Amino acid sequence: MESGMLLSGGQRALIRESWQRLSGSPVQHGLVLFTRLFDLDPDLLPLFQYNCKQFASPQECLSAPEFLDHIRKVMLVIDAAVSHLENLSCLEEYLCNLGKKHQAVGVKVESFSTVGESLLYMLEKCLGAAFSPDVREAWSKLYGAVVKAMRRGWETLPEGD
Which helix or strand (DSSP H or E) is residue 15 part of? Predict the structure, then answer.
C-alpha cells in the first residue's frame, strides 16, 4: 500500500481539497452514499441488522440511529485515509481487520465495486462542478488502495472459517 507510488502530489491535493468541502456534514453526505448504494444493490439491505431487526426498506434503514452510527464510522474511515495520504501503509492492518469484519457479517468482496460507485456518485452530487475528471481519478485510486487492503482480510482467514 505504497501511497507515494499510488497518488501524485497533485492527486493528494485534489483529494484533500474535495474532502475538506464535505467534512462539515459527514452524515448528510454518507446518506447520499448509502442511498445510492441501496439503489444500485437492494440485496445489500439485509446485511444491516441491529438487535436482530431486519429493515423493511432502505428508508427505514437509513433513518435508524444504529445505521447513522455506521455512516459516521464509514465517513471516519474515509477521513483517516485522507489524513494519511502520504503514508497509507500505516492503515494497512486496520483496513485488513475491517475487511475481516465485513466478511464475517456476509459482505462479498464484489460489493466493494458498488460501494466505490456510490462513493463517486456522492462526491459528484455533493461537490457539483468541483468534481472534475481529475478528482474522480484521484478518488478512484485512493478507494482502490483502501479496498485492496480490506481484501487482504478475506485472504488471511483460515480455511473453514
Answer: helix 9-22
